[in-house]
Amino acid sequence: MPPLRAPHAPTPEIPVDDALALILASVAPLPAERIPFTQAAGRVLAAPVTAREAMPPFAASSRDGYAVIAADGIGTRRVIGEAVAGGAGGLVVTAGTAARITTGAPLPAGADAVVMVEDTERNFVARGPDGGGDVGGAGDDVVVLRAVEVGENVRPVGQDYAAGDVLLAPGAVLGPAEIGLLASGGAIEVDVFRRPRVIVYSTGDELVEPDRTPGPGQIRDSNRFAMAEAVKEAGGEVVFAGRLGDNADDVDALAAAVTSADVVVTSGGVSMGHMDLVKPWLAANGTLVFGRVRTKPGKPVTFARVGGTPCFALPGFPVSTLVCFELFVRPALRAMGGHIDVRRPLWPVTLVHDVAHAGDRVEFARAVVKLGADGRPVARTTGFQGSGRLLSMAGANALLRLEGAEGLARAGDVVPALIIAPVGGGS
Fold first, then answer.
1. First-to-last CA distance in the chain?
2. What is the fold of 346-425?
3. Fold of the domain spanning 33-55+160-193
4. Which of 43, 81, 225, 362 is most buried (most C-beta within 10 Å)?
């Protein structure tokens, strides 16, 4: 192969939305795998889960109290025993009798309602050798102070779901409630979309490890670690994270990466300098889908496919890396992981101060969005927006989408904001 060199002419610039559309058209959910439900948190269901039996499988009390026949109304009942959660039953309630019952216990035969214990009074009766005398036990009387309707305080068979019902459909994201539902339904293994396996590289001879003291012209590598965490947050699995130098031999490591991962993400090496070799490598070994996007930060962001593997080459400035990851890589990883909604929420927010921006591109300004006193979201930028200032990303929970030839958004203007972290209250 001839020596790599940066292209002499820039690749065409395309709009942000067109770039994302091209990416999403190039990826698809990965094949499904079957895993224990206890390991499925955060994963996306690939096949429906149906109920093997009704829930609850028996009529059960939803209150502590007494199981009665509703038609008996108010008055004194003879207590014949106690039904408890987990008990096998065997009690039979007849006219004029009641059974003490705990929440979740099976409703005794003959009973059709439960009177809450708050609506009763106990009347302890000494009945001789067979009369009992335990609190609330057989042999005592209970006075029902309030009449109940048939079915009151009773969970009927199948109230939650019936046998054969679809509990969770494909595309469901498995959170705490869904994991609990799987356990309830006895779905001990589930089919989920496989998580995308991602290889991450930062590039540049100037980079040293975080535990090293940088020498002249050197800086500590931050992009590799930030990208790896962003991959995990997006639902991907980092199978390797490394660093490449600015030479053809190092960049050739991408050849092995594209055959051993579902996605490759790099930072740096995509500008026009003679040592920017990542973009030329992608062009020489695969299909360059786009090489520049009309956005700030991150104009030289590149997307290619090499042997069918999606490859994202992000700019090297730390903010450009993370913003481009949010805009382009994260949605792709979500789509490959089976998520239906792959984009961050977009909110209309009100600016609390003027914000200058690029007039010829869409600029994504880092900002903090909070809910104002009226409950509406307001936004303030994180200060100087230089693409090398990683501090502008720290604490930001939104990316303001700013565009327009005037290059200025004024205080009070409502602009779209990509919400990337939770929003709190207070202006």
1. 58
2. Beta-clip (2.40.340)
3. Molybdopterin biosynthesis moea protein, domain 2 (3.90.105)
4. 43
Please name the residue that has the structure tokens 């693409």. 387
Q: Which value, to the nearest 10 degrees, does the dihedral of the CA atoms of residues 320, 324, 329, 331 take?
A: 150
Residues composing the chain: 427
DSSP string, 283-298: HHHSEEEESEESEES-
Supply 361's token pair. Answer: 């591109």
Pairing label, strands 414-419, 309-314: unpaired
Q: Which two tokens stand for residue 180?
A: 């609990």
Are 292 and 300 spatial neighbours (Cβ–Cβ below 8 Å)? yes
Q: Are 42 and 319 in contact (CB under 8 A)?
A: no
Q: Pick out the chain residues at pLDDT < 70.
A: 1-9, 124-139, 427
Residue 382 CA neighbour count, 13 Å, CB half = 22
Strand-pairing partners, residue 44, are 173
What pLDDT was estimated at residue 274? 81
Single-letter amino acid, residue 349: V
Average pLDDT for the chain: 93
How far apart are the C-alpha atoms of 123 and 133, rounded to whole Å?
10
**330 phi/psi in degrees, rounded to 5:** -55, -50
* DSSP secondary structure code for residue 25 in this structure: H
What letter represents residue 54's amino acid?
A: A
